[in-house]
Specification:
single chain, 214 residues, alpha/beta, Rossmann fold, Arc Repressor Mutant, subunit A, six-stranded parallel β-sheet, 6 strands, 14% strand, elongated, DNA-binding, Response regulator transcription factor, NreC/VraR/RcsB-like_REC, phosphoprotein
């Protein structure tokens, strides 16, 4: 699988490229800013671009803006945005701006090779990936009254994994539950939240996130 890396911090960029290479990915380009990334993608599109959210010249949302551009010009290229901080509003903007092949992870996840590799592969396959810390902040947000209050502890666990972009099979493996049990919990979550269960994993993630952000 072909991957491009964009980060203005040379040491982090090289370290990330090494981690990805050791995990079996073909790192075809390493660049220091969003403009260079877009130029390389235009010349030779990869399967996934892993992009720092803050890069030159303003160090604000260059990576996020590049992700949006790539979704418009190269919809087949997955984009995984890395951030040093939990910024739920940016994460939601990214996920909701492109319904396929988008992800937002904290940079600290890079140390977990298995987690990083899984995220890159899921994004390459057109899935949605959201950092657990962002999901935890959304789920744990204080509200005067929320349908989340009606969820059981197990349904809340299932909801959290759904919002991260996990499939039913992945939830089974994570929670050590049977497929039928997970399906029942998913139906319970959607019923209590008043949501329609989507036809695919991405639609259900978007439905859950839309509910959690309000």
């Amino acid at each position: 699988m072909r991957v491009m890396v964009a980060d203005d911090a040379a040491l982090f960029r090289e370290g990330l490229a090494r981690v990805l290479a050791d995990a079996g990915f073909d790192v075809v380009a390493k660049v220091g800013d969003a403009h260079a990334l877009l130029e390389r993608v235009r010349a030779e599109p990869p399967d996934v671009a892993v992009v720092d959210i803050r890069m030159p010249p303003t160090h604000t949302t260059e990576g996020l803006d590049a992700a949006r551009t790539l979704h418009a010009t190269h919809p087949g290229v997955g984009v995984l945005v890395l951030s040093a901080h939990v910024e739920a509003h940016y994460a939601l903007q990214l996920i909701e701006s492109g319904a396929r092949g988008a992800g937002y992870l904290l940079k600290e996840r890079v140390a977990d090779v298995a987690e990083l590799g899984d995220a890159v592969r899921r994004v390459a396959a057109g899935g949605l990936v959201l950092d657990p810390s962002v999901v935890a902040r959304l789920v744990g947000r204080r509200r005067t009254r929320s349908p989340l209050d009606d969820l059981t502890d197990r349904e809340r666990e299932v909801l959290t994994l759904m919002a991260e972009g996990r499939s039913n099979q992945a939830i089974c493996q994570r929670l050590f539950l049977s497929p039928k049990t997970v399906e029942a919990h998913v139906r319970g979550v959607f019923g209590k939240l008043g949501l329609h269960q989507g036809a695919d994993d991405n639609r259900r993630v978007l439905a859950v996130l839309t509910h959690l952000r309000h």
